[in-house]
Amino acid sequence: QEAVCVRSSMSDPRLRQLKIKTSALKRLGKDREANHKEVAQQRSRIEKMKAEGKDEYDIKKQGEVLEECLMMFPDTQKRLEALHAELKGLLDSEKDLASAAEYAEAQAALEQVPVADPKATA
């Protein structure tokens, strides 16, 4: 009969929500990291073009691409902050699920993906 209880808890919609929000938080963390890499690559590309004496128009266009990359940060950060708060609130309100693997994974994700952007420049 205990196996039945375990099986029924696996279908608990709260666990499903934990799993979805955890995956989304990890994805946003990866997106933020990818944004940082893209900005660094773009800055490097611009510096290389300047050093090689490339056409000013081409350099300006690459600068516009860099600006577009930089515009992605606020949206990603806002979504990450909201999702972080949602997941933390869900964990706080569903402490009875603390023994579930999904709960532990969600807690780990909150620690692995900090709200504050560790690579943000002032």
Brief description of this entry?
This protein has 122 residues and is mainly α.
Describe this structure in words.
With 122 residues, the chain is an all-alpha fold. It has 4 helices and no strands. Helix 2 (13-51) runs parallel beside helix 4 (101-112). The longest helix is centred in the first third of the chain and has 39 residues, at 13-51. The N and C termini lie far apart (58 Å).
Percentage of helical residues? over 70%
| % residues in beta strands | under 5%
Shape descriptor reads rod-shaped
Provide mean pLDDT, rounded.
88
Distance between the termini: 58 Å
Question: Total number of β-strand segments?
Answer: 0
What is the structural class?
A: mainly alpha
The biggest beta sheet is recorded as: none
How big is the Rg?
21 Å
Topology order in helix (H) and strand (E) letters? HHHH
The tally of helices reads 4
Low-confidence stretches: 1-8
Keywords:
mainly alpha; 122 residues; rod-shaped
Topology:
Elements: H1 2-10, H2 13-51, H3 56-93, H4 101-112
Helix pairs in contact: 2-3, 2-4, 3-4
